[in-house]
Amino acid sequence: MKFAYYPGCSLHATGRAYDESIRSIAGLMNLTLEEIDDWNCCGATAYMSVNEILSFSLSARNLALAAKRGLPVVAPCSACYTNLRKTEKYLAETPDIKRKVNEALAAGGLRYDGGVVSKHLLQVVVEDVGLDKVRALVKRPLVGLKVAPYYGCQIARPFPMEESVENPVMLDRLLEALGAVAVPYAMKTVCCGGALMGTREEVALRLCRNLLLCAQQQSANCIAVTCPLCQMNVDTYQGRVNEVYGTSFNIPVVYFTQLMGVAFGVGAEDLGLNRCTVPPTALLPTGT
Amino acid sequence: MKRLQPTVLYEKSLDLDLLREISHVPGIENVKHCIQCGTCSGTCPVSWAMEDTPRKVFALVRAGMRDRVMDGTAIWTCASCYYCSVRCPQEIPITEVMYALKRRAIRENREKSRNAQTLSREFVKVVGKYGRNHEISLMARFLMRTRPFTAFREMPIGMTLLRQGRLPLAGHHIRDIESLRRIMAKAEELGGTE
Fold first, then answer.
1. How far does the CA of residue A97 sit from the closest CA of chain B (Å)?
2. What is the DSSP string of A91-112?
3. How many A/B residue pairs have CB atoms within 8 Å?
């Protein structure tokens, strides 16, 4: 199974552990990830508020590069995933946007006519690899581990990966396949604040507080995430949430790929578990 | 929280062009069919931090109260979580409308749009330099331009990330940065769709 891998900028920096854990488990699943050669930033959400054409052109360049290889794209970052899907949709539905984007791409010797399928990594794991295969790879089932499945916004909306927009279950099923308990998590698709952590911190902190509180009420041992921005907000800013709200949350926030790696018997270092701000003690082998 | 004040408006102060100016957004015509049900405001995880909630924003846009929309906090509080968009019974692409309103506010250089303008400008500079986002450069540039005297408050988080190897100091540009720069320059020239 071969995909064009689009890690996105965060996976080389704040979300490095996501990239490390993906690379450590992909081979076990017979998943060949061919990194898109010379990829660029997807434009995040910042470009959208200034210049749509610029934003679409950035994603279109990545899609054009993937089209050359004739492979579907897999993106682990939810924001990258949404931007790829959105660009594909607008180019297909709005001829004026397509014309302008291609005019911009032509300046760099590229052209994109559409047709590349983009998927989020969670979807590839559940649908393409399949849960049977995942189950077969589990060496160290996560028995007794209670996990809050946190999908975040942008894999659930506006381009949902499964039928129910309100209650996605892919991550729940995956966690169960790893032997863990997916606790009922009412906030599973509620926003973490995203980029507001940089522009309106007090708003984002309250959203993170709500996410943590809901996980705590369900006695979750950790929160599983699918997006580097969610991970940073809920994990690295957890101390700030505690300062502002007088709480004492101490809930590790880990990528679903890290949990997969632990269940597959991959070492903690290879999964980047040492990069968490709240140490994921329950996941580390005893004695470390 | 501001006290409720009755607002008296004269017809000549209304500006009905706003809706037309953002009319390129696919599906925007549905704004005319907004039934003011408030599903958006009830769904929005951050409506409590807005002066005017999303439902009100649509009423204001239709009524022609341009300044109140453009100078309000609502459009800058939207986190683009798309929850309202998938629940709206009239299928208004609300998040896209918010983006379109942000772009108008930036174009009109409204005061509340300055932070977003700075962030976007610095983001474009960083991506134009490297082809990718270099988080530490972006945060440093943004903080120094928006709140240089309180930027130090971000130090503990920055230090934590550095210690965890999550904030590489050196940026590396992509191989074909020249062609990306040409694409970006052309795209900037072609502008938005409005």
1. 7
2. HHH-HHHHHHHHHHHHTTT---
3. 193
